[in-house]
What does this fold into?
Amino acid sequence: MDDLSDLIVAIDLMCIMFGMGLSLTTGDFQRILKQPKAVFIGLSNQLIILPLIGFVLVSLIPMRPEVAIGVMVLVACPGGATSNLISHLAKGDTALSVTLPAVASLVTIVSIPLIIQFSLFRFLDSEQEVLLNVPQTIGQLLMIVVLPVALGMLLRAKATRFALKMDRPVRIASGLLLALITLGLIIKERENILPYLEQAGLPAVLLCVLTMSLGFLAAKVFRLGIRQAISISIESGIQNSALAITIATVTLQNTGFGIAAAIYTLIMYAAGFAAILYGRRVVAKA
It folds into this structure.
């Protein structure tokens, strides 16, 4: 992708993360102390179990190196910008769903470069090897993830009524921006999309099903409520695919690394719709 395209993708992600910031308050971070077990289980699924599942899948299923790296970039980016909306519609614990991606976004500033560098060494041969500039990557993540979230939170604190009024339109715009990013990537890689789909389709489906199922199961094993289980399941499966695509195209300068995230976007929203139907039915009975 050219410099203009990279800039557009980065700005789109900043807008999405700004929208996420509008939904956050300092109380969301304080909730770690109030609900430590639920937050710990949710973050463990997002930051530990998710990358492990991704690594096992790309190690067992034959695929091109760029697809394998794309999957690992994706699992390094938990916490989708719209996951709390899906959790809300599914009658999950909205407060928990807001807290998890907020905290995960801070942790992944460090974990994302480490996972990506490991993946580049693991799946590329010596002639293709790419050395990730870790300080530069952390700086980019601070600019396109942390700063927009902080600005959104600041606006929420200083102009609460306006921020709440803008929350829904910004969420809708975020979804449209993610759709445009995904569409642009698919168009860019249209000649390779079918081979990529054949290789990334199965891992993407398995990744979504396994992470959401294990997230729900872990919550039930540790005796959390049904609403918390729904939120942890959704947060485990709904990834920040916009961030994954941005890292692939802007940081790593390889659109092929972003195809897995583009394919996963379609799958995770279908899974999110199924979670909404399930959650509303189960919570209504409870």
